[in-house]
ABC transporter permease
Amino acid sequence: MLKFILRRTLLMIPQLILLSIIIFMLAKMMPGDALTGAFQGNPDVSLEQLEKLREKAGLNDPWYQQYGRWLGNAVQGDFGKSYVHQQKVTSLLAGKVENTVLLSFFTLLVTYLIALPLGIIAGRFTDSWADKAIVTYNYFAFATPLFVFALLMMFFFSFVLGWLPYGSSVDIKLQSGTWEYFVSRAKHLILPVLSGSLLATFSTIQYLRNDIIDQKLKDYVKTARAKGVPESKVYTRHILRNSLLPIAAFLGFEITGLIGGSVFIESIFSYPGLGYLFIQSISTRDFTVVTALVMISGTAVIVGTMLSDIILSIVDPRIRIE
């Protein structure tokens, strides 16, 4: 097992290098450069001054020299300077990572808390009224666009009922570390988390329901029933154990999907995380921030895939690389 994890980790190195080359080249192909968003249209900066700044920042060097500098600094955690925000990209991201991690963690937690019981009920009591109600909910979750559902949630719970706040991650008037500050952060999380998780349950529910229905027809289940094993133990000790393992294996993919999906949720609720910063950086043409965020997102996908492979290898040792 240790050998497989080591091989899978080493395999990430060429993937990350290839990813960095693609991201850097795509960034270079885009119109403008790192200084464009900060100084374009500024009457106080002449074209000659802008050209001197480009020369000083090394933006006129050949692409491979720029890539070498960028990659060397990125490995050390330095993604350059944001000329729009006038601060280092690393410092800019540091204040947003916590919000995105909190949002993604609670969205994933609530998604599984809802999806697992519903998937188990639908699979065990097939064609019952509960199964039909869950399948109907699943179709609704699958067909509803995220931004429409999130806007409806915001309108109903914030504007109509006034129960929950929207926008920002905390009341800026509160002092950090106080109980009121903690409660405010929790309240600001509820709407984004519910909006994301209530629609993200459909794949887990559908997969779990179908797998339980398939497992019920397997020979080992028939044998257990023939031996007189109580029905509750047939489900808990045989069917659910086999049906839940593949879902655990997809945990890595779920994490990376949530980080990518946070772009929409954070933009809709003006939640100050990495996704909201990504949209702002695109609109202001802040190249260094966009490049850093795409690199971080791509790295998260590669790491998530590795985690899924490792979990799958634990679940089914036959897939381990020999």
The longest helix spans residues 89-124. The CA atoms of residues 40 and 95 lie 27 Å apart. The first strand starts at residue 81 and ends at 82. The chain has a mean pLDDT of 82.
